[in-house]
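Protocol step 4 of 6: record predicted structures for both targets in the notebook before any analysis. Target 1:
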Amino acid sequence: MFLTRGARARGAMARGRRVVPFPASALLVLAAAVACARAAPAAALPQVALEPLNAGFTQPVHIANAPGFPQHLWIVEQTGTIKIYDLEAGALRPEPFLSVSSLVSTGGERGLLSVAFHPDFAANGRFFVNYTDRAGHTQIVEYRTGPDRFAADPQSARPLLQIDQPAANHNGGTMVFGPDGYLYIGTGDGGRAGDPWGNAQNLNTLLGKLLRIDVDSGTPYGIPPDNPFVGRRNARPEIWALGLRNPWKFSFDRATGDLYIADVGQNAWEEIHFQPAGSRGGQNYGWNRMEGSRCYPQGSRCDPSGFILPVAEYSHQWGCSITGGYVYRGTAIPELVGYYLFADYCSGRIWAMDTGPKAAYRDAPGQPVAPWSFEELLHTSYRITAWGEDAAGELYVADHGGRVYRLVPAP
């Protein structure tokens, strides 16, 4: 996650850009390197800037919008509060949406980490939060609002899932409703370095996984019948994908349903995984046998034949903790439509990745992936913890230091 290293981002915000090549790897054949050259963006990317919202926050870590309320953003503060920003008025609403500060342990990678709104939130007022409780464990809890959709009812809490955490780091934290209406939950490997418990490759634990549950059936939740490990012995049926170290942020492309997972690396590589719409799940992304497209630990031998390799990665020459974003689908910056935007917490860099290669993408365990190119849009001084998307598809970034910014065309 973003706090693993403790490094601060450096450098003033600039508009210069640098094309970042996909690094060479012993596991990538020459054809993949050739494909990298072909993947360069077809046109020059636009100059962009970050415009601050008219509000301050305490350690913002998540930005969400709620179905039925296109003029508002919900900002999650790690310390336990969710606030609502009125985009039309250009100001915060006077009262917080929800505060669970008394329930949350904060500091490092713990805290209130995300909120996800039910697809029918406008009608039913249901939403879900992911936080680290006072004992250090992950809690997935459902809440409801009253008739006023801008005020949560603290008494409505209904615990859905507890995930015991053996260490204080790698909690994952993001939750997103997919196009299929199911709730997806990202979990880290349980912490420390190198996944010493082997959680990410263990199907009998929820750690180091992407989970998929049905919040509209079952007690306290249901299992989608087409989850890939349903009915398999010694495997948790909630699991959708495995082999993840710390998928701090992931998102679905609102136009296509494709899934992008940004997985925070260990010592050397940050990586992005792509899961096409219509996937049946079950992908193994390789941790802790691999870090990015390379064997882990460095210099060791491994068999990549069962693993899905990343579509893009960058070395710690460029940062140390990836913050995944969204495929841009707004109208303010038309040249960015279809690009996946992401950032690095430590270096403050923001990149745009060409998603054109997805047309030829196939999930093929162990096979080299033609690398997708990405280009630097901005080099900021911010500790970027989150991206957000409003109802119109415009994008926002959160600086852990206390501000949220809208991505806009450069003046």
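Target 2:
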Amino acid sequence: MSFIDTIDEADANEEVRAMYDRQSSFYGFLPNYAKVFSHRPECMKLWADLQNGVRRHMDRRRFELITFVAAHALRSTLCSLAHGKALAKYLSQEDVLRLARGEFPDSLSVAEVAIVMFTRKMSRNASDIVATDVERLREHGLSDAEVFDVAAVAAARAFWTKVLESLGVEADAPFHDMDAEFKHTLACGRPLSFRAHGAAVTAGVLP
């Protein structure tokens, strides 16, 4: 399930057990990502605080749009699946697939198109962002505070994906039951057939 050994629920101390219980009660199962935080459960709380802070000033549609686009640009299969599914509550599934293919669905507003462009560029290489990229967001109605929010949400996703991907966290079983085209298109990094302790599999090759 990951490249590192994690603490079993039966062996967990009070702090780890409490973290596991919170995650399990929310999802109905203990996600693989939570297990790698068993060595530093306090970091899970810090991550939750960061997430709540950076998304507080935007609606859920914008948050999921930015998060999905950032996750896909960062080539995180796990986060692309999770937030692609969440974004499909606000866009059609086909429009989520179009975003994954690098397109701009008609359902996006002009401001959202600008946000997607900024997020993709920033996530691939933040040093490529220039003043005109920010000015484009302003031209479509975003305040400087909102521009900060976009950058902060995308940057937070970079932290999360790099922790999970570098530790080999696998996608949880429910993701394997998603629609075939949807899950295969969104599997932009590690394949869903990846096994952390099994034979090596080339990242990006879909099952």
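Step 5 preliminary note on target 2. The CA atoms of residues 41 and 52 lie 17 Å apart. DSSP finds eleven helices and no strands in the chain.
Proceed to step 6 after PI sign-off.
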